[in-house]
Design a protein that fits this description.
The chain is α/β, with parallel strands linked by helices and 321 residues long. The chain is built from eight helices and 13 strands. A hairpin with a 7-residue loop joins β12 and β13.
Length: 321
């Protein structure tokens, strides 16, 4: 794992990169460019945006005032059209054609309106030995202050969820968050759709204690253990199959398991503070789910976007007589 000194060095370098990139980007527009990453800790910040037959390369930045990357992607983070990459034991070299600020902003704006667009983070969080790194489980049992500190960074998710579900939920539908943390997210859906039933659980007794301030009947359960009956949920909130939270293998297994909870005609929202680990489009197809969208824009903006999957399980058709 990274030491505190390693993390301080990473943050110092991130601030330098953020300042150097500025608004001009990672290279001269329309020129072939390369970018070398030698920090395994930073590889989880790279993403691929697939849009209208093109693949764009991007890198999350950490500006002054933050100590970790935001889930929101901005035009400054889009590097250019992706060509290829070369991976060795101590570095990754990315090759791309740089594009202008206007082209980068236009690409992000289009992605939020294109149901086929997708954002993929090919690398999980890695430690100094280039192994997959996870936050220790006891961190998720943290204090109210730690949990509540995540809430401001979740405002765009809450707003996007209410918009995405506006014409999809019906009175009496069950909305379920199996990793509810403080309950802030699922309670916001309850407020947006007061005629729906809200369920909330978390594996951490401490988090459930906090969640009960908003959802009185929140309960302790392993979200990957199918704590509610299969096909009983009209909206499933999946926001923990993410880098730093689970290993990639556990996240993929969890994805298959959780999807069994969705009722025919129901939906799932898949997102998180850190990148989603499963290849959602591919795994959704394996489970006969439809990806209605994968990218959302921060409300009030056009070119600030984030991973936000809306999945749909088609209703079963009655057999022909």
């Amino acid at each position: 794992m990274f030491s505190h000194q390693d993390e301080r060095e990473w943050l110092r370098r991130e601030r330098e990169i953020d300042a150097a990139v500025g608004d001009r980007g990672f290279g001269t527009a329309d020129r072939l460019s390369s970018w070398t990453e030698e920090s395994p800790f930073a590889l989880c910040q790279y993403f691929l945006l697939r849009l209208a037959g093109q693949t764009w390369l991007g890198r999350k930045l950490v500006p002054e005032g933050r100590t970790d990357p935001s889930s929101v992607l901005t035009p400054r983070m889009l590097m250019g059209e992706f060509a290829t990459m070369r991976f060795t034991r101590d570095r990754v070299v990315f090759y791309f054609t740089a594009r202008s600020a206007g082209e980068r902003a236009a690409a992000l704006a289009r992605s939020a309106k294109d149901s086929e667009a997708d954002i993929d983070f090919p690398f999980p969080r890695l430690d100094s030995d280039w192994n997959e790194a996870l936050v220790p489980p006891h961190v998720w049992d943290g204090t109210a202050e730690l949990a509540d500190s995540l809430d401001p960074d979740e405002a765009h998710f809450r707003a996007a969820a209410a918009i995405a579900l506006r014409d999809l939920v019906r009175p009496g539908d069950t909305l379920y968050d199996p990793a509810c943390s403080t309950g802030r997210f699922i309670s916001s859906l309850g407020a947006a759709f007061p005629d729906c039933r809200v369920l909330a659980s978390d594996a951490s007794p401490r988090m459930v204690e906090l969640a009960r301030r908003r959802i009185p009947d929140a309960f302790v359960a392993d979200g990957l253990g199918c704590p509610v009956p299969q096909e009983s949920v009209q909206v499933l909130v999946v926001r923990f199959l993410n880098s730093e939270v689970l290993s990639t293998r556990a996240a993929v297994d969890g994805f298959h398991s959780l999807l069994r909870l969705i009722a025919p005609g129901g939906h799932a929202l898949v997102f998180g503070h850190t990148p989603v680990l499963p290849a959602v489009r591919h795994l959704a197809a394996q489970n006969e789910l439809v990806v209605r969208s994968a990218v959302a824009a921060t409300p009030g903006t056009e070119d600030e976007v984030f991973q936000f999957y809306l999945l749909h399980r088609p209703a079963r058709t009655a057999p022909a007589p």
